[in-house]
Amino acid sequence: MPVQPSLSQITFSTAILASAAGCIASLSPPNPTAPANLPSDTPLIEKTRITTTQGTFNTLIFGPYSFLALHTVGLALTYPSIPRWLLPRGSAENLNPDLISWSKHTAIPIALILGVGMPLRLVAYRTLGRSFTFSLAPPKDGLVTTGVYKWVQHPSYTGAAVIFVAPMVLWYRAGGAMGCWMSGGVARVVERGVVPVAAGVLLWMLGMRTRDEERMLRGVFGEEWEVWHKKTARFLPWLF
Percent of the chain, pLDDT > 90? Predict the structure, then answer.
């Protein structure tokens, strides 16, 4: 007879599903994405880089995230009597219980997703309204310096950094759901090598997107943007 999941297992699974849904909502365009407003002489490599930061790439990376989140829920609700169909490699010997239950390894990234990344993204969506698009384009209603933008210039990028990295820490672990699909050695290489490199690339792309946006805003709003830029933080209020 299957073991009934505990309250802790149920709340953990609910938090995992909420985190996955929050990631998807945070990286879904709130408005139609128009083509980037780029000069005709923009080099092809530059056009390609800018295009990949406009949303399509964001959507693609969350396919694996969503799959691993659902698998984690299945493991969490059935542990320790995990059915074989949830163990593609046929064994749970490499599974770390701390990665499919409440622990510091799961609570911290979940808290970052639900308490920092998702709120920052959604607040930015709401504050900018129709001006928030994934394309590089001037705000439709002028330079917004109110709401969260009174304290920080790029809250959505701070949120995006959290939304990119925290799920990697949560789901791309050799002892978690990912490790059920590959050998222990391969899973450790992915966790310790591929994931840090991927996180670094994503953060670099966000940095380049920030540069592109600031250059565009400076060109459109001139002194108004310069004054706002000097008196507000870029990513973290009062810090950076």
Answer: 60
Q: What is the pTM of this model?
A: 0.85
- Whether 48 contacts 10, CB under 8 Å: no
> What does each C-alpha distance from 4 to 10, 14, 21 come to in angstroms?
10, 16, 25
If we measure between CA atoms, which residue out of 120, 139, 156, 133 comes closest to residue 217? 139
What CATH number belongs to 7-28+43-231?
A: 1.20.120
Tokens of 157: 């990028």
The dihedrals phi and psi of 233, each to the nearest 5 degrees, come to -75, 160
Closest CA to 180 of 77, 80, 54, 95: 95
pLDDT single digits (tens) 158-173: 999 999 999 999 999 9
Distance CA 122, CA 163 (A): 12
Residue 233's SS3 state is strand
Domain coordinates of the chain in residue numbers? 7-28+43-231
